[in-house]
Structure formats: structure tokens, C-alpha cells
Amino acid sequence: MIVLHIGLPKTGTTFLQHAIFRRTRGVRFIHRGKGSEAAKVCADLRAYARAGEADAAPVRARITDHLRAVAATASAPVVMVSDEKISVDSSGFWEGLGVAPADLARRLGELRGELAPELPLRVIIGVRRQDRWLASRYAESSKAFPDFDQADFDRRMAAVGDLPTLAGPWAWLDFDAMRRQFAAALCAENLLLVPMERLMRKPREVLHELGAFLGGVDFVSTYDEIENDRSKRIRNKLSVGDDEWVLRRDDSRLRLSRDLQRRVLERFSESNAALAAAVQLDFDL
């Protein structure tokens, strides 16, 4: 089985990648920046997501050949590729640049067709309440934007609340539409959405579901091991509370006001209500 963990960034990806996935038996874990093999396949997946129609086929062929080769030599039944930048780029997002979920879903559906039937393909996507996801994303991206500050953030969040439509990478914020697009391209049983809030509050329950999605992998034992060994725990260095973050650029503080929270959540209330019918959420204000 091939499993792609494609993001979203800032949805507990570091915790899953470094505390859980890479430490669990039964998983051949490939993460960006961890050796030439990982760098190559992750770079190809990012390029594939953003390639024009004429360029997509050769990149897909490289990815298919690489994944088949890894699966043939892996000692584990599950090959997992995890790179949150496959979905959303840290800097391009704020400029409206990057892949839309519908386009990436279609591309991964085509990749699944190339790998089938000998290698089933499944996809994991993390989600997070939109207002806090945007705040965390903004704090992380500030290292690349000298003008990022509290006033700029407040303006951007107010604008999000007023957006009539979502284009390009901003379409990832409509989680229910995104879920339906990936389910249509991959078949619903090959897609798992992992809400960060639920992962943090009910980790064993969510990790059990993740393991079942991968065919019976035991992530819960790995979690119990890190809980008993403080040196293995992963700490979020940006968050200093539910509604406050540290800007990566200069360590100044970023606050998410209650008014902006309400405006953003009102914008996505219908989408989140529809998603809650299919996925257990904890997005309450």
C-alpha cells in the first residue's frame, strides 16, 4: 500500500511525521529532506501537483516507477510519503499562488490509476479550524514577508470573512468541498481527513483510526512510548495559546481576536456543518 500524507501544513504534521510515523513498525516512512530518495520523490510530487498538463505525464511516470521500486524493496507493508508542501506552499499561499485542491485531487486520482491494482493508493489530509489554521500559517510564513504584522494580519482575516468565492490555494479552506473533490477522484474509502483539534484532544482514538486506515498499523503503542519519554515529545514552538502565536520573523506576538474568529467561521459555517456530517470535528468557537 502507498499512503500519501500531503498536508495541510500546520495541522499537526510535525507531530505525526517525527513522533509517530517514522517511529512505527510496519511503515516505510519517506519524508522530505530525509535522504536523497525522500528528497527526490517528494520533490516530484510537489512538481506533479503544480505541473501544466503537458508536463504532468512524465513526472507521474517518474513517481510511479519510484514508488513501485520502493515498495518492491521495503520490508514494511505500508510505504508512506509525507510532505505537507505537496498541498500548500508556505509563501505562495498568501499571494494566491499554488495548487487548488480540485486540481491536486484529479492528479492524485490519475496517479492512483497508474499504480493500481498492485499498489493501492490512499491519501491523508489534516484540517484545522480555519481561523486558527490561517493564524498559524501566517506566523510561520512571516519569515519570508517583512511586512507581516498584526495590522496586516487583521486586514487579511477581515477580507477572508468577506470572500464570496475561493480561488487557487484559498480553496483549501472550504474543507467539505475539498473532501468531496478528493473522494470523487480517489474513492471515499481511500481518503482520510484528520482534524488537528481532535488529534490533540483524543490522540489514541484518532491514531487508532489512522492505523486502521493503513490496514492495521499500531500507532497507539508508538504514542504511548513517547508519552512515557519526555525526550521524544514534539513541541509546537509557534503557538503560545489557543489564540496567540509567535511570528517567525522577529518573535513578536500575533493575536487572533474574537471578532475575527467569528467572521472567518461564519464564512465557512455551511462547509463545516456539511463536513461534520462525515467527519468528527471540534471546530466550535
* CATH class type: Alpha Beta
Number of separate helices: 12
- Provide the structure class: alpha/beta
CATH topology: Rossmann fold
Secondary-structure element order, N to C? EHEHHEHEHHHEHHHEEHH
> Separation of termini?
38 Å
Question: Mean of the pLDDT scores?
Answer: 91
Describe this entry's structure for a reader.
It is a single chain. The chain has 285 residues and is an alpha/beta fold. The chain has one domain: Rossmann fold. Helices cover 49% and strands 11% of the residues. The strands form 2 sheets. A 5-stranded parallel beta sheet has the order 2-3-1-4-5, with helices on both faces. Strand 6 and strand 7 (253-255) form a beta hairpin. Helix 4 (101-115) runs parallel beside helix 7 (175-186), helix 6 (150-162) runs parallel beside helix 11 (258-267) and helix 7 packs across helix 12. The chain starts with a strand and ends in a 9-residue tail after the last helix.
